[in-house]
Amino acid sequence: MSGWLKDRVFRTVLKNAGYLGSTKLIGALIGLGALIGAGRMLTPVEFGTLMLIHTYALGVGALTKFQSWQMILKFGARPYEQGNRNIVMKAIRFAVGLDMASGVFGMIVGMAILFFAASFVGIGPQYTPIALLYCTLVPTMSSATPTGVLRLVGRFDLIARQQIVTPLLRGLGTLVAWLFGLGFTSFVASWYIADIAGDLVLWLMTVKELRERDMQSSLRPSLRSAPSALPGVWNFVWLTNLNTTLDACWSPVGNLIVGGILGPAAAGRYKIATTLLDSAIKPARFLEKGFYPEIMRLDPKSRHPWHLAVRTGLLSGGIGLCLMLAILIGGKPLISLFGHKYAEASTLMTLMSPALVISMSCFPLESLLYMAGQAKAVLVAQIISVVTYITALVCLTHSFGLHGAGISYILGVFLLNILAMIPAIIGYTRRHLLESETIQSEIPN
């Protein structure tokens, strides 16, 4: 480890992850408190419905959005380092246009599907009007331009501060509901306000940073003129969009399938287990958010980015192993805070915990493949693993209930990372051929 720390980029990745992790831990604890409060104050059906409504909006946004932050870094990181502001601004303008178009489209499609098929995802007819209103969050939920800009300019400290806004407001909403004895509608309202406030704060931070750099004109959306200066950008955004759409099947869509098969109460238990696991995997998310911008600045021909990936993967995997052991020991007492009616979520979380080690160890693979111009390999891995996961989820959930859902998740995660590892290893052995395929064709000087 002492040798690894001599690598400036590795230190930068750890520093950025530290920024994000410092406030995210506080936010996670506050968010967990809000989730426990909702679980104890609402009936299992109401709690499950709240989770389904929130998950549905998240799922719609994830299925329709473009990963505009990845595009900003892919096409803007090196030009930004070189002082080529024109290219950077065009990338941001294109990202804003993508976010606006996909957000409005996702909201309309999500409302239309929900209007006719709410019961299919486990949302009862009495809750459909509230769920339709909640879908108005989709445009801000699916917007990734602000995080892309702030990562590009190295303001991870601002992202870290923003991360605490949403869980803090949810916690305050839960506290108000408890003090005044409010019911289901108040929890939906607090979740809604918390989400939109967090997104707006992120946008305000982004506008301020762009103004300080005299780049505020880059906020004008452009879907036609900007891409002409970014060769290969449409191909990249469509591939990452499809990959993101498939990635949404792991949590939001999977939760909706469980709700449709087993009902909202079971969906609430499944949501508790997956939310706690997602909180446990956050260290890898922080490392990834710091890793992606830095690796996009490196030359894929050299060994540096590949060795950096191995180091961060080993570090993250070690953390994942410790977290898995912590879940095996302390998972049941933690779930008991929600009340005895959610006890089944403890067994489910324990069953799914090995997926932590797999996901956290292999998180650099996706970034590596994007850097090496192999976005199609990421997409192929996602398609095969998601089809396997969804098929197993439907079959095993029908046969074994929530335990079947947990087994399906582990199977899908394992397959996804194996399929991503193969082209990454091939890419490393052929890295001397990568420069002409990626840098020259996709990032103009």
TrEMBL record:
Topology with respect to the bilayer: Multi-pass membrane protein
Designated name of the protein: O-antigen/teichoic acid export membrane protein
Taxonomic lineage: Bacteria, Pseudomonadati, Pseudomonadota, Alphaproteobacteria, Sphingomonadales
InterPro entries: Poly_Biosynth_Transport, Polysacc_synth
Gene Ontology CC entries for this record: plasma membrane
Pfam families from the UniProt entry: Polysacc_synt
Segments crossing the lipid bilayer: 21-41, 47-64, 94-118, 130-152, 164-183, 308-331, 351-370, 377-400, 406-426
Primary subcellular site in the record, as a coarse category: membrane
Organism expressing this protein natively: Zymomonas mobilis
Record keywords, A-Z: Cell membrane, Membrane, Transmembrane, Transmembrane helix
